[in-house]
Each structure stands twice: as structure tokens, then as C-alpha cells.
């Protein structure tokens, strides 16, 4: 009797999928209990139609199919279905899928992922639609249920192949077996009962191998790569819980897979193909292949979706989370992908199980969802959604990247072999991927792992840095570590899984699940995730709530037509990713390996799967109704992503070898022209100076609207969109960095780091940015910002000695200056000993430390369709020096302080008045706002605006600054470790090298020293010759000619510069206010006498002035206050909300002029000991007006030129200069100190570039140089010629009226020069005028004949005026002085001054002289005449 029920079901399934089968033979074999079918061809079209995959089957066959039915023991022995050798070959479907093109059908708008993940569903739908009317009686039905629940499926040798372009991906599973188990997970014959409504199954996979190979144009694989995954075995446990015996489907489904060891191997040739496969998965997830990209790029006309179509948005969320962690942990995706492939195909095989009743289909369907897809329900079904829990667990996983090279065989006909070498490896422990879902209303995915680390293997690019014979420790090989060891952490990654003996299912307890968003967030916090895993934790949550009690039919499509359904469904998507504390060491070995991987990944020519659709702008857009806008304002679904790094340590050492010039061109998309590298010996550099960066926490938040295009389409059509809606039209990004600090450290030969020397103390900062979605909709909205960025820096401090900066410079240059050879790593022991001093040992001459801090920096950038604007403030800047003082105490010397109250410093009166300390409420040092048009030529809507104010600044040029600058390490203690050079060193690098002992680490960049030693120790004859040569190598003639052609005269350069500046300022509204900057130049250090005025430079000077008897001589230069204002502009606050509107924007060229420039309170005075103050330049001011007009000339060449007329008028106040012997002595001392320091700096080459760059500049001048030199001078280099030098030589030539034989007859006159400029590059007319009422110069000196008295010589020039008129054909200079007098005076004992001899008259020059009788009174007119004329 049972045969009459079972046989038709088995026959129908076998006959559905297999071609050319005789039902009579199959029926006879089944009656005998065993059926064996051989060499079966699969019906590929049926498979494609039922599986609904985005792939098409090229071939598919089964070698042998066995079905064993124990008719006599059906109640105690399982039915066994065995498939021996099943092979299928697939490829991606060409073009869009026909069945997905119609927009209204019930199955069209499901994305391809959903189709792929629910492979068994069509069968269930068909059967539920047409149930068998003659169901067996209750006993038989229960017996058949027992049979079905205990069916065993065995697949031996399953082969799946996927081909695309030149990629062949093959999966081979030696055996897979599915059977029913008891509560101890042992094989048993089980059934559900009223007391135990649970069914358990196990699937064992043995020896899974995944291969990835490249085929040639003919489709053959020339040589086989090593398998990606080789003989990996894993097991899956399935746990089904039913509500009652009559339940048609389980209420809880758990499918968990455990892999003990997973070893992936990827070669350089497989990497692009592997990434291509990953991109295929992402494109399928987002429906970008053969289907509309759901939610975003879907056609706006298509709005009608049924329930299956509605899930695409949620399913998009599902897919995005499964792909999202690829950026952060590639391992998870590899593991999960394997699980997807194998489990998906197991579910396909599972579909061969005969379905007797409906609930079996549901069960089978659920087993097909173990790859992360949601279980979708049809609208007509009233069954409640089951809770599905899917888990993937891996104890230990490794990914190894290998480089391959071809190995030719001795025989011509033998196949080529590939030799591979491991270079980098990623190890991961305790990996978990868990998915929990309930229908379409709740989906959660959690990914985490306990620990991971990365290490270097073998060698890279010929550098054998980690070969076995190097004897390097494991600590040196591991450059990245994160999390904890599994042995210490335990099996927390298996918590509540079917493999955890403490889980409820393994203790016969019904599990509880959190399906509420609020409760979920309270339970699964960052702390909880880190406690369970430790290295990485990701929690993705998607929920959908129905506010009206029913799920809207249009829940996923935010379209303007169906806006009445907006309020019915509220969707939420949050992703939180947390990375635990990690250590990363970016040394040469690690960086070169990572860069090599990136270069290999980019070496392909695959076309992208998805292309952006052309922007279709609707000309006529309908205005949404007020009800639609109101429903929008209630709730807008968004996707929120938070990424957190809890604590990280990054170490960047000196580059021990640098071959990035071979890798960077490939990464940047250029062809690598740098030839092959030869193997080089490598010795690790110890001690190894490094930069250590610590960050306490990094937090990144990103939010974006879930349905951006539909939202923007609606909001942009509103005439006045509300701020709330406008806010959601942007993607927002917040970056916060807490506790960032940097220090210098050094790795010794024992593998230990020395105590770090802090360079940047801990600080925090934040950046916020927003970018509007679909800017094409906002082009006509000038007031809507398209981009906006805000940067905040509360406080930043940098402190370093000169030795530390030299070490930082050496580290930087070791990475940035690649010279073609491997490296010649230089360690200056004196420099290292100075930076890393032994604890407890005092230095003989401790170095001064410079410490600079900047506070309260706020910058904002905004861009609209018309303008770009920026504004910002800088609160304060302070720079001080810490130097060793008397008695071992450290003295603090302030160098720069801003803002500082410098309003009264132009006069020395402030020294005797009370001075308030700097207030905390002082205005910001710098405040500015700038706004410029997006297109400079299109200024009809807005001109450029610059508003800026700078507060007072106090500068103390202390001699300790010179001490800091001129430090150089001892050169005798330098030690270098030489390595063989690789490849050819470019000739320009090794030209005219000095001896190695003439250069030290600090005096030149590291690249120069590398090339020195490379030349000195190289065996190449070219390099040896280069060392012995002392003369510079001449540049090739062709190069010199080219350089002379490109070198223009200084006047042309000046003309070009004027043109550039004119374009920048011709429509600029300028408002600039700069308070006075006071510069103190002492001839000895001025440390702060107390902590009260430690940061206040004027306060420090004042306390020294009053409190110390031996105050060092100080020169005080008080620079003027500057105020520049454009014509017609009214004063505005310098800090504006951007974008802003100017009351009178400048739209036409030149309307911004004239500028009014005011300078106030310029003065110079000296402070000497005993509270003595002597003025050098009395306070003075000036007012000037600058006007510029421009006119476009007729284009005589390819470019149009301008003619400029520049007018400058300057009105100066009276100038009074005083000078005495102590002031001259002080000025001489200061000049001598500065000169010595400058000579030392020049001699040591501290400020010079590498000789690689300087030598090419100082060759002989090109013969065609247009500048002629005067007699006895070297020909000037045209590339460094200044305008003043050029004018000087031409003037010299004009002054000699010699014939053609004269050496100066070739000189170019100034008129010829300017006329040539006028023809070639436009014209400049310049008119300048100065007006100065009076200049007074007073010279004081002690009277040598009378002690205690002084003499004074006073020179006065009155009514000075000067004007310069420069035109194209002439230059006119006019100067006028009304009178010039020199008088002399003597001081009396009471301090009064009286006239010297001859009434103090020394020289008189004016229109009308004094009456002669004045001199006759003294009877010595003859003594005065020589001075008068």
C-alpha cells in the first residue's frame, strides 16, 4: 500500500529533472527496493526555470543515481538517495533576464539575490496551489512523515564550474551526507512527538576544494594554479522546532555550520579573478546585473509591486550587510562565501527529497536559506513567519598571498609549471557569522572574531628579508595583531550556537530570541560585542514596523505617486562596526607586500558589471501635495553606519629598503618602466628609529537616506523645502578622533622598544561633512549647499628638539626619496643617543626644546552651484622654548604669542604703566571669510569677497632659537649598513658626489647619503668613475637648449604674475584688518621670570625691564596696523555665516578699486639696561590709495592680452629717526649673531635640498640667454635672475656710448625691453607718488672733551615728494625736496640742549638762505662757507 504513495512521488521528481528516462524501468526498480540510474543528463532548462539563478547551465549530468527504499523497515531505517559524480558548468546570463523585464508581475521585482537564495520555493508554491486531493489516512501520513524526516542524502564527487571571461571557478566536494540525529547529535532514526517537537539533522562535508584558474582565448587552461581552498571539511547542524504535531512548518529554524580549519591560498594571478568574483556577488546582491538596481536606479514609473517585490528593499539591506565587512575583514567574506556556495547547493540537492505534505516544503525551503537570505512569505499565506537563525563558525582561518613565476621544463612539449612563493599571511581565530530573521519585519546579522594577525613570509621583490636563513624572530614577522588568543578567550565565539554545549537547544530548553529593535540595542552593545569577541564585532540591524496595523503594499518604494503609504511603514537600518585594540607596524617589509598586493589586484582589464545610468531629468515635475509633504516629515527611513576603533598603535619605522618607485606607477595607472630587479642581500637595521602613533578612539558615523533618488526628486520640486526634509537629502559623515598622540621610539637588536620620546601630546579633533544626493536636481537652487565641511581642533601641541626633527626628517626622506637602489640605511649614533637618552644619565649639553601650540581652530567650507566659500577662526598660537637653566631648572622662553594686546606697544610708555594679563575672553587671533564664484568668468550673480581680521602678535626672536637651529649631530660616530644596490642608479643621482665624511645625517636628506655610499661601495665601473670625478657633469646640449627656450625674461614672468593676480582681485571685495605685530630682538635670552607671565611676551619683557638690573639689550620693532578696504564697501564682521550675500557685490572688472590702505603706528626702539629706553624710529603712519584699471588688447596671437594701468598714491606722516652709540652697538651685535647663524646654516646645508636637485640648477648658463653680463662678473643664470639685476645691467649698458666694438653694445635698453614686453604679453603703465612732510634724523654721541655731556647732530628734510611714471616707451622719475638742514647741539649739565658753534648750523639747503649777518656776529664766516656750498 505504501508503494502506491511513495513511488509516484519519487518518479515525478526524478522524471522532472532527468532526460530520457523510462518510467516503467524506474517503477520496476523501485518496487525491488533499489534503483540505479547511470549517465543521466539533467534538464537544464527546467533547472534554470526552477532555480531562477542569474546563471545559465552550459552542461549538467549525473554519473550515477542510486535510490534505496527499505520497504520492509520504513519505520526504522531511512531512505537513502546517493548521487555519484554530479557535474554542472554555469556561466552568467547574457543581457537582462527576460522574465525580469515586466514590472508588474508577482515575481519580477525580486532581485536576483532573492531568486538565488530561495531556490526551492517555486516547487512549494506550485504544490500548495494544487494539493493532492487524495491524501493518505492519518496513520499512513504519520508514517510517511517519519520516512521523510529520516531521508539520508549522500552526494559523492560533486563538481561545479563557473566560467566568465578568462576565469574558471570550480568547486569540488568529495562527499556530502545529510542524516537525522538525536539530541546528542548522533546518527539516529527520529521523529517529532507531542513531548519533543524538535527535529535535528546533520550535514557533513568532506574534502571541499575550490580552484580558480585562467583560461586562454581558446578556452583551455594552460597551467593550473594552486587551489584557493584544498580539502576542507566541515559540518552543519540543523535544528527545527515545531509548535505542535500538526504544524505545517517549523516555528524556529536553526542552521549552524562549523569549520575547524580553513586555509585559503591566493596567488598574484588569482587575486584579480578573486576580486572579480567578489564584485559579481556584490552586483548580484544589489541587483545590478540583469535587473533594476532596487530602490535607487529603478525606473520611477514602475510603482506597482506585490509583496515579493516589496521585499527587495529589505533584501537589499540583507545583501549589503553580508558584503559590508569586506572592507574591514576580508576573511569573513571568504568564509561566508564558501558557506554560501556549499550550503546553497546542498539545499538544491535537498530539494530531491519527496514532499508529502506542505510543511515538508517549508522545512526544505528553510534549509535553502542558510546562506543569509530572508525567508519570504507570499501574501496569501496566513502562516506566521518562522524565526530563522543561521550561523557560521570557524575556529582558525588563514589567507596566504603568493607570488608566482613561470618555471620552464627541459622538454619543449612539456607543460609549463608555476612556482609560487608565499609573501604575506593573514591569520584569524574564532570567527562567527550569525543571522537572525523573522519574515520581512526583522533582520539582524552579527559578525565577529576573537583575534587576528598578519605576518610577512619569505622575500619580496628580490629582498630576502624573511627567508629561513635570516633567523628572524616571529615578533619581527608579525606586523599586525588584534584581539586575543583563542586559548585565553575560550569558546565565546560559539556562545548559544548548536555547537555550544551550554546553549538552550543542547539542554532541551526552548531558546528565547530578541526581535525588538530597542531591546536588541540595549543587549548587543559595543561592550558586549567586545567581551564576546575582542578583535572585531559588527552588528547590522534592519527592522520594518507597520504603524497602521498593516504592511503597506508599497512599503519599499518611496515614490511620489504612492506617497499616501509613507506613514504606514517605518524602516530602520543601522550598522555598527567595532575594531578592538590593535598594533600595526608599517615597516618596509609590510608596506611593500601590501603595495604589491594592490598592484597585482589592479592588473586586469575586466569591464565593470554595473554602469551608471545617464541622468534623465524630468522637464515637468509635479508638485507634491501638502499631505504628501506632511507624511514625509513624519518619518524618513535612513541607513546609519557607525565605525569605531577602540585603541590603536601604529609604528612607522625608517624604511630599511625602498622600492616604491617600482610599485607606485602601477598603482597610479602608469606603465612600469623601471625594469627588473636583481636579488639583493638584506640585513635588518638595528637600532631602528620609528614614529609611534597612539589613538585612544576613532569614531566614524555615516548616514544616508534609504531611498535617496525618490526623496530628492520630491523635495527638490518644492519651492521652499523645509529644513528637516532638506537635512535628509544629504549623506552625512562625522569623524571624531580622541587621544591622538605621536612619539619617537627605537627598536633595538633585542626586539625591544625604548621609552618613547613624545612629539605630539594627546589631542582630539573632529570633522563633519555632508554631501547632497543627486546634485543634478539642485542645479537651479543657488542657496542650497551642495557640499559642506566643518573642522574643529580644540588644541594641538607639538614639541621637539632639533635632533628629533632631524630624525623625523630622516624617516620621512627614507620613504619619500627613492633613488633607484635598495637602500643604504644610515644610523647616526650621536643623533640617536641625543634623541633617546639613557634613563638616569644626564646629558652634558641638553638641547633646547621648541613647543608650539595652536588652540580653538574652527574651519568651515561650503559649496553651492554658484559659489565656493570658507570661513574660520584660529583662537591662539603660542610657541615657546624650554632650555636648561641655572641649577638644573628648566627655563621657559616665550617666542611667539598671539593674540597679544599690542595697541600701546608702539611707544615705550607701556613699560611704565600697569599691564593687564591676557584675558581668556580675548578675540580670536585670526577670523576670516572668503567667497569666490565657482566659475571666475561667470560673475553675474556674485563677485569674490575676502573679509579678514588678525589680532596683535608678539614675537621674541630669542638667541635660543639660533641654538636650536644650528644643532648638528657628531659625524664621526655615524655608522651605516650597506646593501647592494639593485637595478641601475639614475645618472643624475650619482653626479659629482662629495666624500662621505663631509656629509652627515642632518645636513642633507637621506637620499643624498644613500647615493653617496652607494657610489662609494658599488662595484659598477660607472659608479666608481663617478666617485673619482670631481667636476660636475655637463648637461646634454639638447636639455640646455630646451631649458633656454622655456626660460623667459624676468619682465615676462612679472607680467604673467601681474595677470594672475589681476584675475584674482579684479572682482574682489577686500576688507583686511591686521593689528600691530611687535617683534622683540634681544641679544641674550629672555626667559620668563615667573609662571604668571610665562606665555606673555610683553609681560616678560616688562618684568625684566623693571626687575632685573642686567637686562639684555633688546631691539623692539613694532610693525604697523594695516587696514585695507575696497572702494564703496561698508565694514562687515569678518566672520559670516556662509554662504552670505554682500550688499554691493562687485560684478564688473576693476570696480573693487581703488583700495584704501592705512598703516598706523610703525616704530622701532631699543631697551637697554638700567631701565633705559631709546627710540630709533618714532611712531609714524601713512595712508595710501591703490587703483588698477585694465583693458583687453586686440589678440595678436593665440591668447588675448591685457593692458594695465596701476596708480599708487602714498601720504606719509613725519618720520623721525634717532640713533646713538649704544643703539649702534646693539644693532651690530644682533647683525653679527644673525650673520654667524646664517653662515653656519648655509655651510651645513640645513636648509638646502638634496644635491640631486641643486646640481642641475648650477650649470653654465645657456648660450642663448637674453641677459648680458657686465665685465668681470659671471653670467647670471636665467632661471634665478631677478628684475632688479636685469635692470641694473641694462642701465649700465646705456650709460656707455661706445661703438659696435664696445663690449656693452649688445645690451638691451630698457625701452626696447618694455616695448618687447608690450608686444608679446600686453602693456603695463605704472604711476606712483609719495608725499612725506618731514624726515628728521638725530644722531647722539658722548662729547669726548666734556665728560657727562652729549652732542647731537640733527638732519631735517622737509616737503619730500617723489613720483614715478612708467609707460611703454619711457620712464620718468621726479623727486623734490624743499629744504635740507643739518644742525648740531650740545647738552648742558642740567640736561637741556643748546645750539653748538655757529648757532649749531652745519649745512643749510633751501630756496632762501638765512641772513649773512648772523655769521658776521661770530666773526667766522669763512669757516661756514665750505659747509654751505
What this model shows, in words?
The chain is of the alpha+beta class and 1429 residues long. The strands form 3 sheets. The chain has a 41-stranded mixed β-sheet that branches. The chain has a two-stranded antiparallel ribbon with strand order 12-13. A hairpin with a 2-residue loop joins strand 12 (458-460) and strand 13 (463-466). The longest helix has 24 residues, at 1221-1244. Residues 96-135, 291-382, 550-566, 820-824, 972-1045, 1247-1321 and 1412-1429 have low confidence and may be disordered.
Please give a quick description of this structure.
The protein is about 25% helix and about 35% strand.
Major beta sheet, specifics? Answer: 41 strands, mixed
Mean pLDDT: 76
Number of strands: 45
Gross morphology: elongated
Number of helices, where a helix is a run of at least 4 consecutive DSSP H or I residues = 33
Termini gap:
148 Å
Helix content percent band: 10-25%
Poorly predicted regions = 96-135, 291-382, 550-566, 820-824, 972-1045, 1247-1321, 1412-1429
Task: Kindly name the structural category.
Answer: alpha+beta
Whole-angstrom Rg: 43 Å
- Oligomeric state, counting identical vs distinct chains: single chain
Strand portion: 25-35%
Blueprint (SSEs and pairs):
Elements lengths: L1 H16 L5 H9 L2 E8 L2 H8 L3 E14 L11 E13 L19 H6 L3 H9 L8 H12 L2 E13 L2 E15 L16 E17 L14 E13 L10 E16 L2 H16 L21 H17 L6 H21 L7 H10 L19 E21 L9 E22 L3 E15 L1 E3 L2 E4 L7 H4 E6 L2 H4 L27 H7 L2 H7 L3 E11 L22 E11 L2 E4 L2 H14 L24 H9 L3 E8 L2 E6 L6 H8 L20 E8 L1 E9 L2 H8 L7 H6 L1 E18 L9 E16 L14 E15 H15 L7 E5 H7 L13 E15 L3 E18 L5 E9 L27 E8 L10 E7 L2 E4 L2 H7 L8 E5 L27 H12 L3 H8 L8 H10 L3 H16 L2 E7 L2 E6 L14 H11 L6 E5 L2 E5 L29 E14 L3 E21 L9 E11 L2 E5 L1 H24 L6 H4 L28 H12 L15 H12 L1 E20 L7 E17 L4 E17 L5 E3 L5 E5 L7 H6 L2 H8 L1
Parallel strand pairs: 3-4, 8-9, 16-18, 17-19, 30-33, 31-34, 39-41, 40-41
Antiparallel strand pairs: 1-2, 2-3, 4-5, 5-6, 6-7, 7-8, 9-10, 10-11, 11-14, 11-15, 12-13, 14-17, 15-16, 18-21, 19-20, 20-22, 21-22, 22-23, 23-24, 24-26, 25-32, 26-27, 27-28, 27-29, 28-31, 29-30, 33-36, 34-35, 35-37, 36-37, 37-38, 38-39, 41-42, 42-43, 43-44, 43-45
Helix pairs in contact: 1-2, 5-10, 15-17, 20-21, 23-24, 26-31
Amino acid at each position: 500500500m505504501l508503494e502506491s504513495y511513495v513511488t509516484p512521488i519519487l518518479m515525478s521528481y526524478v522524471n522532472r529533472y532527468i532526460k530520457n528516462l523510462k518510467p516503467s524501468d524506474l517503477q520496476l526498480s523501485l518496487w525491488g527496493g533499489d534503483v540505479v540510474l547511470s549517465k543521466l543528463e539533467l534538464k537544464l532548462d527546467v533547472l534554470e526555470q526552477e532555480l531562477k539563478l542569474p546563471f545559465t547551465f552550459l552542461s549538467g549530468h549525473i554519473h550515477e543515481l542510486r535510490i534505496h527504499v527499505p520497504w520492509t523497515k520504513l519505520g526504522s531505517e531511512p531512505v537513502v538517495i546517493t548521487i555519484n559524480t554530479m557535474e554542472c558548468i554555469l556561466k552568467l546570463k547574457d543581457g537582462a533576464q527576460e522574465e525580469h523585464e515586466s514590472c508588474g508581475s508577482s515575481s519580477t521585482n525580486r532581485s536576483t539575490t532573492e531568486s538565488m537564495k530561495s531556490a526551492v520555493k517555486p516547487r512549494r508554491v506550485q504544490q500548495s496551489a494544487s494539493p493532492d486531493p487524495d491524501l493518505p489516512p492519518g496513520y499512513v501520513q504519520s508514517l510517511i512523515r517519519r520516512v521523510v524526516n529520516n531521508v539520508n542524502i549522500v552526494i559523492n564527487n560533486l563538481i561545479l564550474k563557473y566560467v566568465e571571461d578568462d576565469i574558471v571557478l570550480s568547486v569540488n566536494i568529495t562527499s556530502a551526507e545529510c542524516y537525522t540525529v538525536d539530541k546528542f547529535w548522533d546518527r539516529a532514526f527520529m521523529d517529532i512527538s507531542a513531548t519533543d517537537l524538535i527535529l535535528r539533522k546533520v550535514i557533513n562535508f568532506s574534502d571541499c576544494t575550490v580552484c580558480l584558474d585562467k583560461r586562454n582565448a581558446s578556452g583551455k587552461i594552460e597551467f593550473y594554479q594552486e587551489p584557493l581552498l584544498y580539502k576542507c571539511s566541515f559540518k552543519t547542524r540543523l535544528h527545527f522546532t515545531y509548535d505542535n504535531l500538526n504544524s505545517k512548518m517549523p516555528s524556529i529554524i536553526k542552521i549552524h555550520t562549523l569549520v575547524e580549519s580553513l586555509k585559503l591560498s591566493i596567488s598574484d594571478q588569482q587575486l584579480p579573478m578573486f576580486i572579480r568574483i567578489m564584485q559579481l556577488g556584490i552586483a548580484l546582491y544589489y541587483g545590478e546585473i540583469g535587473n533594476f538596481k532596487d530602490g535607487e536606479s529603478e525606473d520611477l514609473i514602475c510603482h506597482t509591486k506585490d509583496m515579493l517585490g516589496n521585499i527587495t528593499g529589505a533584501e537589499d539591506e540583507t545583501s549589503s550587510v553580508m558584503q559590508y565587512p569586506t572592507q574591514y575583514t576580508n576573511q569573513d567574506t571568504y568564509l561566508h562565501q564558501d558557506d554560501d556556495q556549499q550550503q546553497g547547493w546542498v539545499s538544491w540537492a535537498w530539494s530531491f527529497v519527496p514532499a508529502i505534505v506542505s510543511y515538508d516544503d517549508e522545512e526544505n525551503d528553510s534549509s535553502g536559506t542558510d546562506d543569509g537570505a530572508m525567508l519570504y512569505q507570499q501574501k496569501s499565506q496566513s502562516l506566521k513567519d518562522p524565526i530563522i537563525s543561521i550561523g557560521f563558525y570557524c575556529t582558525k582561518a588563514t589567507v596566504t598571498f603568493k607570488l608566482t613565476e613561470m618555471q620552464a621544463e627541459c622538454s619543449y612539449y612539456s607543460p609549463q609549471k608555476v612556482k609560487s612563493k608565499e609573501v604575506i599571511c593573514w591569520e584569524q581565530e574564532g570567527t562567527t557569522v550569525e543571522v537572525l530573521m523573522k519574515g520581512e519585519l526583522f533582520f539582524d546579522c552579527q559578525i565577529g572574531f576573537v583575534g587576528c594577525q598578519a605576518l610577512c613570509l619569505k622575500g619580496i621583490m628580490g629582498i630576502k628579508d624573511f627567508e629561513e636563513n635570516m633567523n628572524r624572530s616571529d615578533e619581527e614577522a608579525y606586523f599586525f595583531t588584534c584581539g586575543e588568543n583563542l586559548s585565553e578567550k575560550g569558546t565565546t565565539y560559539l556562545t548559544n550556537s548548536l555547537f555550544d554545549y551550554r546553549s538552550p537547544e543542547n539542554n532541551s530548553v526552548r531558546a528565547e530570541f530578541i526581535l525588538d529593535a530597542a531591546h536588541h540595542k540595549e543587549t548587543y552593545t559595543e561592550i558586549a560585542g567586545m567581551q564576546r569577541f575582542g578583535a572585531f564585532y559588527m552588528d547590522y540591524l534592519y527592522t520594518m514596523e507597520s504603524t497602521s496595523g498593516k504592511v503597506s503594499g508599497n512599503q519599499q518604494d518611496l515614490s511620489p505617486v504612492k506617497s499616501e503609504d509613507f506613514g504606514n511603514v517605518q524602516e530602520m537600518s543601522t550598522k555598527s562596526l567595532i575594531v578592538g585594540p590593535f598594533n600595526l607596524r608599517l615597516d618596509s617589509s609590510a608596506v611593500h607586500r601590501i603595495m604589491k598586493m594592490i598592484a597585482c589586484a589592479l592588473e586586469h582589464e575586466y569591464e565593470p558589471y554595473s554602469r551608471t545610468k545617464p541622468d534623465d531629468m524630468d522637464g515637468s515635475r509635479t508638485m507634491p501635495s501638502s499631505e504628501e509633504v506632511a507624511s514625509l516629515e513624519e518619518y524618513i527611513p535612513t541607513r546609519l553606519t557607525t565605525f569605531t576603533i577602540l585603541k590603536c598603535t601604529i609604528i612607522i619605522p625608517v624604511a630599511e629598503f625602498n622600492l616604491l618607485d617600482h610599485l607606485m606607477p602601477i598603482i597610479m595607472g602608469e606603465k612600469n618602466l623601471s625594469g627588473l630587479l636583481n636579488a639583493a642581500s638584506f640585513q635588518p637595521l638595528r637600532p631602528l628609529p620609528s614614529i609611534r602613533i597612539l589613538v585612544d578612539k576613532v569614531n566614524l558615523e555615516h548616514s544616508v537616506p534609504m531611498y535617496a533618488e525618490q526623496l530628492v526628486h520630491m523635495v527638490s520640486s518644492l519651492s521652499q523645502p523645509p529644513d528637516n526634509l532638506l537635512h535628509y537629502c544629504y549623506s552625512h559623515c562625522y569623524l571624531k578622533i580622541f587621544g591622538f598622540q605621536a612619539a619617537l621610539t627605537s627598536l633595538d637588536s633585542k626586539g625591544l622598544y625604548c621609552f618613547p620620546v613624545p612629539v605630539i601630546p594627546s589631542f582630539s579633533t573632529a570633522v563633519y561633512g555632508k554631501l547632497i544626493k543627486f546634485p543634478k536636481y539642485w542645479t537651479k537652487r543657488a542657496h542650497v549647499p551642495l557640499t559642506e565641511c566643518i573642522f574643529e581642533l580644540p588644541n594641538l601641541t607639538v614639541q621637539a628638539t632639533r635632533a628629533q626633527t632631524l630624525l623625523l626628517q630622516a624617516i620621512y626622506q627614507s620613504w619619500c626619496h627613492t633613488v633607484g637602489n635598495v637602500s643604504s640605511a644610515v644610523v647616526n649614533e650621536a643623533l640617536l643617543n641625543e634623541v633617546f637618552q639613557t634613563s638616569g644619565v644626564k646629558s652634558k649639553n641638553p638641547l633646547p626644546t621648541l613647543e608650539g601650540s595652536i588652540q580653538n581652530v574652527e574651519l568651515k567650507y561650503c559649496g553651492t552651484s554658484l559659489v565656493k566659500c570658507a570661513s574660520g577662526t584660529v583662537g591662539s598660537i603660542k610657541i615657546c622654548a624650554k632650555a636648561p637653566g641655572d641649577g638644573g631648572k628648566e627655563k621657559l622662553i616665550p617666542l611667539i604669542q598671539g593674540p597679544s594686546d599690542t595697541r600701546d606697544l608702539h611707544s615705550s610708555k607701556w613699560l611704565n604703566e600697569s599691564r593687564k594679563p591676557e584675558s581668556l575672553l580675548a578675540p580670536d587671533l585670526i577670523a576670516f571669510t572668503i567667497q569666490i564664484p565657482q566659475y571666475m568668468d561667470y560673475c553675474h550673480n556674485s563677485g569674490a569677497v575676502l573679509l579678514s581680521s588678525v589680532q596683535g602678535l608678539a614675537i621674541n626672536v630669542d638667541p635660543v632659537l639660533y641654538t636650536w637651529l644650528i644643532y648638528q649631530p657628531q659625524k664621526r660616530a655615524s655608522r651605516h649598513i650597506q646593501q647592494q644596490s639593485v637595478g641601475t642608479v639614475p645618472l643624475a643621482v650619482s653626479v659629482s658626489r662629495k666624500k662621505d665624511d663631509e656629509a652627515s645625517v642632518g645636513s642633507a636628506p637621506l637620499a643624498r647619503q644613500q647615493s653617496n655610499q652607494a657610489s662609494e661601495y658599488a662595484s659598477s665601473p660607472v659608479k666608481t668613475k663617478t666617485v673619482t670625478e670631481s667636476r660636475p657633469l655637463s648637461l646634454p646640449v639638447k636639455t640646455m637648449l630646451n631649458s633656454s627656450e622655456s626660460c623667459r625674461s624676468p619682465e615676462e614672468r612679472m607680467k604673467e604674475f601681474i595677470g594672475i593676480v589681476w584675475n584674482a582681485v579684479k572682482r574682489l571685495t577686500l576688507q583686511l584688518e591686521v593689528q600691530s605685530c611687535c617683534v622683540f630682538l634681544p641679544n641674550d635670552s629672555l626667559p620668563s621670570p615667573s609662571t604668571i607671565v610665562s606665555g606673555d611676551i610683553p609681560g616678560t619683557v616688562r618684568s625684566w625691564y623693571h626687575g632685573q638690573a642686567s637686562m639684555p639689550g633688546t631691539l623692539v620693532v613694532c610693525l604697523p596696523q594695516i587696514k585695507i578696504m575696497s572702494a564703496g564697501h561698508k565694514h562687515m564682521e569678518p566672520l559670516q555665516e556662509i554662504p552670505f550675500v554682500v550688499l554691493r557685490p562687485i560684478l564688473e572688472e576693476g570696480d573693487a578699486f581703488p583700495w584704501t590702505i592705512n598703516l598706523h603706528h610703525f616704530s622701532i626702539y631699543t631697551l637697554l639696561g638700567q631701565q633705559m629706553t631709546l627710540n630709533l624710529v618714532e611712531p609714524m603712519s601713512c595712508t595710501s590709495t591703490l587703483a588698477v584699471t585694465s583693458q583687453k588688447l586686440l589678440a595678436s596671437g593665440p591668447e588675448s592680452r591685457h593692458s594695465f594701468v596701476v596708480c599708487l598714491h602714498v601720504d606719509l606722516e613725519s618720520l623721525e629717526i634717532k640713533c646713538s652709540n649704544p643703539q649702534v652697538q646693539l644693532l651690530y651685535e644682533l647683525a653679527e649673531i644673525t650673520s654667524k647663524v646664517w653662515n653656519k646654516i648655509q655651510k651645513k646645508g640645513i636648509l638646502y635640498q638634496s644635491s640631486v636637485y641643486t646640481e642641475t640648477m648650477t650649470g653654465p648658463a645657456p648660450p642663448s640667454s637674453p641677459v648680458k653680463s657686465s665685465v668681470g662678473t659671471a653670467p647670471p643664470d636665467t632661471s634665478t635672475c631677478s628684475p632688479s639685476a636685469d635692470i641694473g645691467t641694462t642701465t649700465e649698458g646705456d650709460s656707455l656710448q661706445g661703438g659696435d666694438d664696445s663690449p656693452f653694445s649688445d645690451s638691451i635698453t630698457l625701452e626696447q625691453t618694455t616695448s618687447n614686453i608690450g608686444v608679446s604679453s600686453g602693456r603695463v603703465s605704472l604711476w606712483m607718488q609719495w608725499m612725506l612732510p618731514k624726515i628728521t634724523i638725530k644722531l647722539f654721541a658722548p662729547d669726548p672733551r666734556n665728560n657727562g655731556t652729549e652732542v647731537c647732530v640733527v638732519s631735517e628734510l622737509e616737503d619730500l615728494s617723489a613720483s614715478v611714471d612708467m609707460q611703454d616707451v619711457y620712464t620718468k622719475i621726479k623727486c623734490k625736496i624743499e629744504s635740507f638742514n643739518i644742525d648740531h647741539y650740545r647738552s648742558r649739565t642740567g640736561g637741556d640742549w643748546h645750539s653748538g658753534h655757529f648757532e649749531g648750523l652745519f649745512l643749510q639747503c633751501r630756496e632762501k638762505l638765512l641772513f649773512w649777518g648772523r655769521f658776521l656776529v661770530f666773526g667766522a664766516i669763512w669757516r661756514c662757507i665750505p659747509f654751505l656750498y
